[in-house]
Structure formats: structure tokens, C-alpha cells
Amino acid sequence: MPKLVYDFIEGNKDMKDLLGGKGANLAEMTNLGLPVPPGFIISTDACRHYLAEGIVPAGLAAEVTEHLRRLEQEMGRSLGDSGDPLLVSVRSGAKFSMPGMMETVLNIGLSDASVQGLAKQAGNDRFAWDSYRRLIQMFGKTVLDIEGHEFEHAIDEAKRAKGTKNDLDLDADDMKALVDTFKQIVKTRTGSDFPQDPREQMDMAVNAVFDSWNADRAILYRRQERIPSDLGTAVNVVTMVFGNLGPDSGTGVAFTRDPGSGQQGVYGDYLQNAQGEDVVAGIRNTVPLQELEKLDPASYGELMQIMQTLENHYRDLCDIEFTIERGKLWMLQTRVGKRTAGAAFRIAVQLVDQALIDIDEALRRVDGAQLAQLMFPRFGDTAGAALITKAISASPGAAVGKAVFDSATAVERAERGEDVILVRRETNPDDLHGMIAARGILTSRGGKTSHAAVVARGMGKTCVCGADQLEVNVAAGQFAAAGKDGQLVVRQGDVISIDGTSGAVYLGEVPVVASPVVEYFEGNLDPAADELVSAVHRIMTHADKRRRLGVRANSDTGEDSARAVRFGAQGIGLTRTEHMFLGERRQLVERLILADSDDGRKAALAELEPLQRGDFVEILEAMDGLPVTIRLLDPPLHEFLPDLTELSVKVALAGDKATEKDKKLLEEVRRLHEQNPMLGLRGVRLGLVIPGLYAMQVRAIAHAAADRIKAGGNPHPEIMIPLVGAVQELEAARDEAEKVLAEVAAETGVSGHTLIGTMIEVPRAALTAGQIAQAAEFFSFGTNDLTQMGWGFSRDDVEGAFFGRYIEMGIFGVSPFETLDAEGIGRLVEIATTEGRATRPDLKVGVCGEHGGDPESVRFFHHAGLDYVSCSPFRVPVARLEAGRAVALEETGGSDSR
Ligand code: ADP
Ligand code: MG
Ligand code: MG
Fold this sequence. Notes:
Structural class: alpha/beta
Shape: elongated
Radius of gyration: 33 Å
Bound molecules: adenosine-5'-diphosphate, magnesium ion
Mean pLDDT: 92
Number of strands: 31
Strand content: 15-25%
């Protein structure tokens, strides 16, 4: 076994895999000379071993003993000593921060004997017994699996007996009594006494931290945040420092910048005479960090300096935990802090302006998912809206939904398709399910650093917190607010709107409008007018400069195409033609299918052609000068016919009076019915089987292009044949198309070269791409069908049926329809690209499946050497950004510098 335990001075911030984020950063701060209580870290190797084998690695105990002995020497005290005990915290800390998801136990080393020593050393009985009851409480919950509310209930009882609501009113005797009660709870629930041996306490706590890696809420959080499940957690053993020693002590959390807006300044909460979790748990009201300047100017000054040091060192927003023990400041944690999407863009650009990072690094530090979030709509005119209250804007966005008051209801209603807002006094890690299900979160307590705020920001979910004017009654399923006409009561199911950008809460539904970032992409907003938009503009401009990959859009209409161009599309990668056969035109398709003579069919096609031509003119005009890939008809014909059951019923009910047309139609619908339409008569098969269909479409395209040229335009249509599996299919379709193109050129006197290519969406096509490229001037990967046919499952049938289970079982981390399965389907893409280009070096290769707008997939397509991706117009900016990031990340081996 390699070395398993590291002193803080042995680590640094780049060792997160081994030491976890918390440990690596404690080590980094120690080596920066900041005041960190000494301690050591048990590596993630030990955790992985424990999780796999069920026991800790053989050498662990001895290594811990050695590091503990060194720590005791340094501190001049030994763990749990009855005269002057060294106490430690045992803290979880994985590679990726999982706020509140795993466990920590404070005050390890206290016992019936050492509590006396601690009291004497500190000269403070209340403090010592408060610390002891905290240990039993946390140890009971975390290590012994006793329900937390048993302890909380006992505290509430003690407060009630005392006639107070404030824990500070409980004195030393009350704490002593609580310790007795807590020990009794432990005895009743576990059948054993609370362990008195300090080392036994420590070892049990370490194992409990290992185990907390696989707690339900940790698993759920990892799935949500796409954190791999096999990393394990490190364990930090840290000398205790005490914020609960009296009013000259306290504990706090802070950010070096506002994680909501990115503004530089002092953001944090402080709580006097308190320990650890008290700040975020909302047991008492915290004060803004600025107040510390009055309470303890020396510590405040030192803290400000340290925050500056950390910002400059990490070159990013940091969040920190600190404790003040009798006027002495201690740093307990730091990490590069989570932030909103808007703050991510703003901070990245601010750091460039401060010369702390370069613009490439700024590009690496934002991502497409964040950009997508900034494109969500927000509340428009709120003048007429019924404002209930205004509170802390914790995570931006506009959310509208029905108020619900517990997570189970949130999940249940969301599953029924309802939009809900989860309303709580405060949230805790057990609310994660409900938070995921809700559109937004509203709490009446806690500030920007509360659990609700931190987790919501991480998920990109709208959150308003600290709405302390609201009286939230979870049991009754309602909240009350003082309105101008007396009290306003909002009950479960009533619609509310919450604005995570302003902190406003409204009764009823407030209409939404486009975000400023979308207005900017639309060209309606000067980037200089808004700090966020200007940050987006600078990073997007740089992404465009860096990227090699082209970005096109999937668009079927002139209007969408025009928007795509405004959003930066360099062409259309996919125009579907099927919608051009719907609506009133359905009649014509029916006639085409029912035609019993060549003439009848030709007549139907002849009527369709000018309509198609009009559609194409519109798109080619919107995309003047840019390539437009037009896919010939793909779906099976019966999709254009009436539904089999409906038509059967209609004909049956009409009996003898059924029309000839309906009877014939029914016959055709029956004849065309397919067991597996996805694998049936569609794509190029249709083009080869229905005479004249593809020829009509090609003629419409050619005429539309000629019309545009005559009107002074510069059209670049490209003809794309779908669902080809063999080169012979493509050759047949191509011969026909070329013939038509030549005819139209002769007719109109306008000629030009029209590219003819194919979709690669059948695995056989990918595997014979070398042959297919002989007949194709371009490939476009239809990764939706390629995924369906590659995996052998049809999306509509399987996504709802078992994907949830598959993701739970870790068969895939994310749906392969969302992010391209790089190993399997991606390999088909790589093979086809390489072999296609071997045949035809100037082969143009793109992708037009939905993956073309997925951040991770875009980076994959970059690496696979594609020429462009094509996605829906709204995803075009995301694809541009990620294409640029792919280049910037490539140069650093895939990571940013933090
Ligand atoms: P989390 O990851 O949930 O924040 P932590 O391990 O950071 O858990 O610890 C929980 C709380 O206890 C934090 O507020 C932290 O600052 C505090 N804490 C942890 N270790 C110590 C210590 N050695 N002395 C004082 N407070 C501590
Ligand atoms: Mg912490
Ligand atoms: Mg397809």
C-alpha cells in the first residue's frame, strides 16, 4: 500500500484526487503561511480500499498513530487527555465539493474525564459542556445513525423548561443535563455507552466519514452534478479551535466576491459565540461580515488581508470558513467558490482586466451550460404584479410555479408535470430531491451562504432566501405575509413567481421576457450597455477567434434561419422538408399515395413542387451567401396519412355509407403500416421506391436557387440524402438528382455546382464510409439515429421506460441522447470521418443531431476533426463557445489553471 496519511505541510492544492479538495486546500493555506490549525489527511486511497474491501487498509492504524503523535507533540497536548485534552475534528472532503452532503464530527477527544480538563483549561464550564454535548450529538447522528431530531428535541425541551428560544441562555448546568440526556439516547438506541476512548472515537468517526460517501443524498448529489461515484472521500483530522468560548469568539463564512453578481467586496456571515455548522444551520441570526469590523477590528483586518492573498493566489473567487477563538483568527477551509452563471462570466473578465488571468483562461473558466442559463427568459414588466415580499437574491432566474412545502410533494407534483416552487424555512441536504424537482426555491431564513443558496447556485436553479417577513408553516402547508389589506396567506398549490435576480416574490404568474444576453445575440443590445453582456461579448468574441469548428444551425423556416444567422450560425446544417408536407398540403400527399396511375402521381407532385420551391427560396434568401443543407424527405409516408385506428372506426361506423376515398385510404394505411417504423420504409429507401418524389424535391431546390440568382442573390444549397446504408443506394439517388440538376440548368440557363452528400446515421454507413464517400461530397452525422441504431433502442420507447434505472445503475452517467456516447457511437463517427476522408480528402464532415449543441459532445466533435456542428438556433452560441473552449482546453491538457 502507498503512503496513506499526509500532514498538511506535505500537500498542496493540486493533490485533490488524493487529498480531496478540502485537504488539498488546507495544505495549500498551511504552506502559504496562513493560520490553519495543524492536522493531517487520510487519503482517498484509504477510502477506496475501505469501500471496496469493507475494512481499512492494514497499515492505516499505524500511520495515523504516527501522525497523531507528531500532532500531539506540536500542540503540546495529547488527544483526549484528562488534564488538558487535544481535541480534533474529523472532516470529510472529496475531490469535488459536495456541500453538506457528507459528514463531519467536531470535538473528538472529549469524554467524562477530559471535559473536566477542558473546562479548567478554558476557565469556562459552559463552553466545555456545550462542546461535549455537541460531540455526542454529532457522533450520535453521524457515526451511530441515531435520528438527529431526538437530540434536537431534547435541546428544545431544555429551552422550553428555561423559557427561552436562544441557545445562549442555556448555562453550564443545562449543558451538563443535556450531556446526560444525550448519553441516555445513545445507550437506548445502540445498547452501548457513548465511547470514552478518544482513539476509538476517532477511528469510528473516520469510518463513518468513509461510509458517508455512499449515503443516499451524496449519491443523488453526485448524479445531479455528474461527479463520478468511484472517487471516494479523504478524511481531514484537524486540531479544534473554538468559536464558542464567549463573545470574543465566533465563526463565519465569507466569499472574496459576490457569488451572485461577481462584484468584489466583503460578502459573508458571522456568528458570535458559535461553533461550526451554527452559521449555516440558521439556529441564530447571523450578522453581515462587515459587523466584525466593529466587534473585532484586528481579526477583521487580518481576514481581509488573507482574503486578498487567497484571491491573488487562486486567481479566482474563493469561499472560506473561519473561526475566531478569543480574538485569534483561524482559517478552516477555502476553495474556489461556486458562483452563478452570470458571475462566472463577469469574474472571468474582471480577472483578465486585473491581469490575473489571460483571456484564454477566462474562456476555459466559463462553459456552455452557464451560457445556456443566461439565455433563459426573465420577468418582464412587473409593475402590475402583486409583490409579496423582497428578500435575498440567492440564485438568479425567473421561476413560476405552485407553492409546495415539502420535498415529497415537490417530487410528486413535478412528476405529474406541474411546475412547483419549493417553500421552506430553510433547506437541508435531505431536501435535495425536492430542490431538483422544483422550478425554484424560496426560504424564509438564511443568507447567501445558506444551504439553499449554495446548492441552488450549484444547480443553476432560481432561489430567493432569507424572506424573513414570511411566516412559513410547513405542517399546515402555507405561508403568511403581511399584505396591505391585512394578512395574505399562500396555500399549497397557489401560484407564485420568484425572481432570483432581484429577490422579489410575487403572487400569481408574472410574464417573462427575453434575457439581455439573448437581446444581445439578437443584435438589439449594445454590449457596452451592460456589464454581463459585455463580459459575454468579450468571451464569445475570443471563442470565435480560437475555434476551428464551424457552427451551423438546424432550421426549417426562413424566420428561424434569420435568427440563427443573428446568433452566429455560419450556415444551415439541416433543413428538414417533412413539415413542408403537413397542414393543408397533407391532401396532396394523400393524393400522391393514393394515385393509381403515373399521371395521378405526377399531378400531385406537380402541385407540391411550387410550394416546396417557395419554402426553399425563403430559406436561401435568409441564408444568402451561406451553405444550406437540405435533407430530402425522411419519415415514412404513413406519418402523413390519418391514424389507422381512427380511420378504421370512421369507416366501420359509416358502414355502407363510407366513401370510396376513405375505404381506399384505409387500405393504403393498412398496407403502409409498419411494426418498426424507425427501421421501415423511410429515408433514401422512400426516395428510391416512390418514383418522382426525390426528383420533385431536387427540382424545387434547383429552381429556388435559380430564382435567387436571378434576383441577385448568392444561394448555396446542398442536397442531403438521408438514411443511406450502402453506397449503391446513394449512387442511385445521386444519378437521379444530377439528372434533374442538369435539366433545370438547361431550362433556366443558370448553372452552378450543387453539393450532394449523405447523412451517416446507419451503422453500416459509418463502417463502409470509405465506399460511400465515392458518391458523397459531404457527410453529416445524424447522431440521434446513429445512437438509436448503434445501441438498438428507440428513443421514444426507452427514455421513459428504463433510462432512469440505467443511470442509477451507472450503466451510463448521462443519457446517450443528451451527450454523445464517445466510446461507442463516437467511434463510429471517428471511423467514418477517417475512412471517408481517405477516399475523398476534401470531404466536408459535420453533425446535425441534437448532440451538435451539447457542450461535451461539441468538444468531442472538435477532437474527432469534424468541420462543423449544427444545432438548434438557440444552441448556436453554446456551440460557438464550446468550440472555442475545446481549443483553449486542448492546450492545457483539458483543465483550467485553478
Ligand atoms: P462541510 O464540508 O459540511 O462544510 P466541514 O468539515 O467544513 O463540513 O465542517 C463543518 C463545520 O465545522 C464547518 O463550519 C467548519 O468550519 C467547522 N470545523 C471543522 N473543523 C473544525 C475545527 N478543527 N475547529 C473548529 N471548527 C471546525
Ligand atoms: Mg466546510
Ligand atoms: Mg435521422
